[in-house]
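## retry 2 of 3
previous attempt timed out at serialization; input unchanged, resubmitting
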Amino acid sequence: MSNDNNFNGLGCAKWLVEALNAMKITTPTEIQRKCIPEILKGKNCIGGAKTGSGKTIAFAAPMLTEWSKDPCGMFGIVLTPTRELAMQIAEQFSALGSSMNIRISICVGGEDIIKQSLELQRRPHFIIATPGRLAHHILQGNEEFVSNLKRLKYLVLDEADMLLTNTFSSDLKRCFEKLPPKERRRTLLFTATMTDQVKSLQDNQESKFFMYETDTLDNVAIPSTLKVTYLLLPDHVKEAYLYSILASEEYKDKSCIIFVNRTVNAEILRRTLQKLEIRVASLHSQMPQRERTNAIHRFKATAARVLIATDVAARGLDIPTVELVVNYDLPSDPDTYIHRSGRTARAGKKGEALSFMTPNDVDRIHAIEERINLKMEEFDKVHDTAVIRKMLQKVTLSRAESLLEMDKDNFGEQRRIQKQKRFIKKDQGKSLK
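## retry succeeded, writing output
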């Protein structure tokens, strides 16, 4: 009789169970218990579970078990919306398959394309990719790589709700055209947000998906160990309050991610806090990939205590030490709030999500409270007059210096040039028609 309280009972290969044990992963989570046996039976699968519930192992374990029966050639591809998430998934695959000489190729933007191309020609067992860069390799692709793609056994869409939006549709179409037809591959979709696009795939008669959604997904969008608070304040004192909180007795040693909506805000805050002697790193799309990777490593290794990020870090990143998430800018979509907040209070640990609310944000706060089915408490750890008097002048000066430096460094110039190039290409395309 099988025992679904351990990975052996779910049908995972003996070597893989040993690798999981070595990583101190011995008891499957709910999503793993339900999905692993069904995938091993050869079914397509849609898995929905809240953030931090072990979705990566829910698809990696059955794929690795199947692959190890005949470990040659390209076996599976995992598509994911962000570079950081791709790297994290690749790390997990590498760690799990290290005893089996697994070959993993990470195929993301911002990295050396020629080096990637050579790696792909060596027939890695698993490719972890963002859709844009994979589509680019397919377009440039040598015939051998494209014909190897035709033999893949598994396709995974991780953070499927985000991948199935218009942002990725043309790149996904290009990738899918070169993959084996649906009936010759297993398709696995995993998500923390069950959107209509994801659900509609279940009704697709050709593919027949096994679908499992943990009961709590929609009712309890955030874990009970997460404290949600808000702080009402005028826009022009947000930095002073943030610095005051980070430097306060209660939070001065806590690991924290601060979310902003724009790259320019991330850069201003990073420079300002650095001048105020906070150990800080930032993560946004205008940084070169090497710097993005370094920022994640520094934060994971606690060399940086604070990470300032745009929503490139809202999805899937698993950094167990995060104790506080600050929504410095509130997102317009309540689901983004859930993903951001999910960076803390993971796997049963406690955490706090604090949202800065200016008078213009009242509707956004209400929409979030409705979505999470919970009223936020007012944050009461900082007292107004003290903040204004002690911090404001110091912080304003650091901010002004940061803005001058950014101007001198031509921050944002690269993006402006790229935009111009795109417009020129478009115009050239039109004139050729």
